[in-house]
Amino acid sequence: MNKYWSPLVDELSPYTPGEQPKVDKLVKLNTNENPYGPSPKVLEAIKQATTDSLRLYPNPDSDQLKQTIANYYDIEPEQVFLGNGSDEVLAIAFQALLKHDDEERPVLFPDVTYSFYPVYCGLYEIVYDAIELDELFQIRLRDYLKPNSGIIFPNPNAPTGILLPVDAIAQLLEENTESVVIVDEAYIDFGGESAVSLINQYPNLLVVQTLSKSRSLAGLRVGLAMGNADLIEALNRVKNSFNSYPLDRLAQAGAIAAFEDTDYFDETCQAIIDDREDLVSALEQLQFKVLPSAANFIFVRHLRLDAEMLASQLRKRGIIVRYFNKARINQFLRITVGTLEQNQLLVDAIVDILQTKD
Ligand code: PMP
């Protein structure tokens, strides 16, 4: 039979997202959403936008939002790019900045890392080399100093949660001047320092962020990238070739309010950091090994119990966490830091599982 699609489609192995359960009662600690909800000022701004002018197209360039972000980071609005979640921003960045097919100069990213990167490479037919993390699950930057057509990694890395200091990124940029370096800062606000401070110094640095995690707006779908104005222009050229309105009116209004309400942002990020440290202590007492996390999730391994079994036993008790059936990390679970109450439910459920097993 004729196939009415490209051979590429048969070869794709699409990204498998974390489960979004159909029932409400589960304690959902599997996709790193923020347990505290967005700022009340964001909800107010969105409500206002619904009554104002949904009849009209939105501002195609999200000018006011770009200005708000530029003010927040002390950069120029021409250094800001926006998309429908950072997954879309990353997709455009892969297409605009990393799309090469030079076998001698693959795109480099870590193994283990965000599992969307190899998917984009498959989609855009990009040659890549996934570089193993070191024995402590850290990114070893000297492994990236070889001919390449671009380097990308999350900071903190996902799903490990391990942070690279901004000085190390500056060091990499000093040595890697021939290709772009993309730092995916989806989880940077939970104790890390952003590399945005380096964009004026290094024209090949692109920093990608999202409002899904620290600003608790996963449902609104707003992602951004910041870098030299020429890099941002390259992203705009690709974006304008397939979608002139990446952000709707509600997303623009909500995102502006989210960047303006710095008090709420600081308080909720700090609460998550504090709760993370308490959760780590509680799990260590239950014989878990926890990788050092600067994110709103932790990556943990029990000294005796099998990770897949633990995930399924937790699910039976109404709690979902993330299990990756992948070499090297198949004895780990990634657990989102929830509310105090959710974290306690998790700890209680683990105690229950341990008692049942003994
Ligand atoms: N980067 C990393 C490292 C992530 O874990 C995620 C969340 N799955 C994203 C980007 C994308 O987040 P969003 O599309 O919600 O902005």
From TrEMBL:
Domain of life from the UniProt record: Bacteria
Catalytic activity: L-histidinol phosphate + 2-oxoglutarate = 3-(imidazol-4-yl)-2-oxopropyl phosphate + L-glutamate
GO biological process: L-histidine biosynthetic process
Pathway: Amino-acid biosynthesis; L-histidine biosynthesis; L-histidine from 5-phospho-alpha-D-ribose 1-diphosphate: step 7/9
The protein's enzyme class: transferase
Swiss-Prot/TrEMBL cofactor(s): pyridoxal 5'-phosphate
Domain Aminotransferase class I/classII large: 25-350
Modified residue annotations for N6-(pyridoxal phosphate)lysine: 213
Keywords: Amino-acid biosynthesis, Aminotransferase, Histidine biosynthesis, Pyridoxal phosphate, Transferase
Family per similarity comment: Belongs to the class-II pyridoxal-phosphate-dependent aminotransferase family. Histidinol-phosphate aminotransferase subfamily.
HAMAP family: HisC_aminotrans_2
Protein name (Swiss-Prot/TrEMBL): Histidinol-phosphate aminotransferase
Organism expressing this protein natively: Entomomonas moraniae
Phylogenetic lineage: Bacteria, Pseudomonadati, Pseudomonadota, Gammaproteobacteria, Pseudomonadales
